């Protein structure tokens, strides 16, 4: 009886997980901006694979397999936000612009440099581009 | 007995549907990697590809009983995380190239609701 319930629960979990993964991929394809795409990928994508691994832990026969799947879930939930945050920070610091329809830019004047002279600071790139850019960033004037 | 039979058939149907959905996710992510206008988009797509592959490994492990591949899933997650971190450091060190700048016209690639009224967009944005 317990096995039956676990099997049905595992079926529901892999359905939900793969649906999450498909929705995340659809969001990656359809959202307009790197940062919004990242919001789709790093949340829904990690939840999707985590649900599939949880279903594997439910239907596995022995204890160590289930423990390994749960360890994989924990590891994945730990690393996915880290990598997404690092990538977003790097892209924003280097100067990849947000979507023009974005409402709020909470770090409009941040300047992050790693190499002393090579990396262009964001403010400098915005200033140097402001002459030719058709649409300046919405919150740049604040 | 009938309950367990029903559960097994239900699991079979769920496995088929989820394999189809994961295949669609894989395809859409690959489309974004090919199309992706900038380097961070492609890095994000590769990260997503890793997580979809881990989901594939879990579903195939349920389907065929090869749970040996869960170890490979853990290793794949580690490699994907390290690759994304390394790519982020590389993007920081490289800066934004002129090649990206040409291709980064988001309005041209994905529709912009304010495309016809760019001035209005900037004014309302500054008003907030």
From TrEMBL, chain A:
Protein origin, superkingdom: Bacteria
InterPro entries for this protein: PhaG_MnhG_YufB
Protein name: Monovalent cation/H(+) antiporter subunit G
Keyword Transmembrane: yes
Organism of derivation: Jiella flava
TM region positions: 6-29, 66-88
Annotated region (Disordered), positions in chain: 119-142
Pfam families xrefs: PhaG_MnhG_YufB
UniProt-recorded Gene Ontology molecular function terms: sodium:proton antiporter activity
Keywords (A to Z) from UniProt: Membrane, Transmembrane, Transmembrane helix
Automatic annotation (TrEMBL), chain B:
Keywords assigned: Cell membrane, Membrane, Transmembrane, Transmembrane helix, Transport
GO MF, one annotated term: sodium:proton antiporter activity
Pfam families documented for this protein: MrpF_PhaF (PF04066)
Keyword Transport appears in the UniProt entry: yes
Matches recorded under InterPro entries: MrpF/PhaF-like (IPR007208)
Keyword Phosphoprotein on entry: no
Name of the protein this chain belongs to: Cation:proton antiporter
